[in-house]
C-alpha cells in the first residue's frame, strides 16, 4: 500500500493568543505521537516565512505521512482525533486538509 501525505494548514481567529496557538500545536503533536503506529513521518511543519505573499493568511502548516490509506482512514474517525478537532475550533478561523499519494494525479 502506498503512503498518504497529509498537508494541513490552520488560520487562527483574530485575538488568539500565542499560548492558545502553542497549546493547539502541542495537542497536534501529542495526537500523532499517540498514533505513531499509523504514521511514517511527522508531524512536521512551521510558521510561514515566504516573501511571495500567497499564504492566504494561514498561520501554520504541517505534513504527516500515513503508512497507507487504510491507516489514514483509521485515523480520521478516531475519537482522539475528533476530540482534538473539536478542541481547536473555537480558535481556528479556517483549515485546509489535503491528502494525496505521491505522483497520483487522477487524470
TrEMBL record:
Residue ranges occupied by any Stress-response A/B barrel domain in the UniProt entry: 4-100
SMART domains according to UniProt: Dabb (SM00886)
Signal peptide: none
Gene3D superfamilies membership: 3.30.70.100
InterPro entries named among the record's database cross-references: Dabb, Dimeric_a/b-barrel, HS1/DABB1-like
Pfam family, one: Dabb
Oligomeric and partner information: Homodimer.
Record protein name field: Stress-response A/B barrel domain-containing protein
Organism listed in the record: Serpula lacrymans var. lacrymans (strain S7.3) (Dry rot fungus)
